[in-house]
Inverse folding.
């Protein structure tokens, strides 16, 4: 009986290891998908729509431009349509639309390789970015400094924001998102958490604050989750695009406010 008790754990380990199976993950090649990225803002144009296509997992992250497409933007409020010109491979530029207007709805039309893609976005009212400041804290003996955007959120309406941060004019590869769902009408001090090595005395930080519609905010919010920028990120998946026909990317009519500061 004692001998059985002694050998039983080793027998169980033997069974467990003998059942181990090697699983080979087959990353199949897939047909390329089109990626559409376009913006109309309340800052002077011209504006651009970029078309690229995806590559396979094993390929270098060089995304080929999609050329020869027909691209149009229509201001649904005025009925004016602008046919964009491909001035650089895969980049299409407005010719008539020189200033986006808040409250106007813009329609995107893309025809490429026999497939049609459409999107719609309404430009929200602008929110003033009051200032950019800094917040420093010490964690486990290491000082950490982050930039802070300060602004008054309008009360009584949903507002959605995205932010781009530049350090010495170099963009940080992360889009920050904020929704006023729990902060409607409050004064906001939005801190941008990132690698503390980005910001040190003497550097200049610039923040671009974009007011976007809900669909565009959803795109960047799910994109951040896919990249793991959110502590509550879920299993990676394609971000929620507002473009039809299963295209990837987004089309946004948005306002733009810019602020900057130098850390002393």
């Amino acid at each position: 009986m004692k001998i059985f008790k002694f050998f039983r754990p080793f027998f169980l380990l033997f069974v467990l290891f003998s059942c181990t199976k090697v699983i080979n993950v087959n990353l199949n090649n897939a047909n390329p998908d089109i990626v559409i990225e376009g913006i109309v803002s309340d800052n002077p144009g011209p504006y651009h729509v970029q078309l690229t296509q995806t590559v396979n997992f094993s390929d270098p992250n060089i995304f080929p431009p999609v050329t020869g497409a027909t691209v149009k933007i229509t201001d649904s409020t005025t009925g004016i349509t602008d046919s964009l010109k491909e001035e650089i491979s895969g980049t299409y530029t407005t010719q008539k639309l020189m200033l986006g207007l808040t409250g106007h709805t813009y329609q995107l039309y893309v025809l490429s390789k026999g497939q049609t893609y459409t999107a719609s976005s309404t430009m929200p009212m602008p929110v003033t970015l009051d200032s950019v400041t800094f917040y420093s804290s010490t964690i486990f003996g290491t000082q950490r400094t982050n930039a802070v955007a300060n602004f008054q959120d309008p009360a009584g309406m949903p507002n959605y924001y995205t932010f781009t941060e530049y350090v010495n004019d170099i963009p940080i590869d992360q889009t920050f998102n904020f929704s006023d769902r729990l902060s409607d009408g409050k004064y906001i001090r939005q801190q941008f958490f990132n690698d503390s090595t980005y910001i040190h005395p003497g550097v200049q930080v610039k923040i671009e604050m974009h007011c976007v519609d809900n669909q565009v905010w959803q795109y960047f919010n799910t994109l951040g989750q896919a990249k793991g920028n959110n502590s509550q990120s879920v299993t990676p998946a394609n971000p929620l695009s507002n473009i039809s026909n299963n295209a990837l990317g987004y089309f946004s009519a948005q306002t733009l406010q810019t602020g900057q500061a130098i850390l002393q």
Remarks:
- The chain has two domains: 34-122, 129-235+256-262.
- The first helix runs from residue 2 to 18.
- The domain at 34-122 is CATH 2.60.40.10 (Immunoglobulin-like).
- Residues 1-27, 230-235 have pLDDT under 50 and may be disordered.
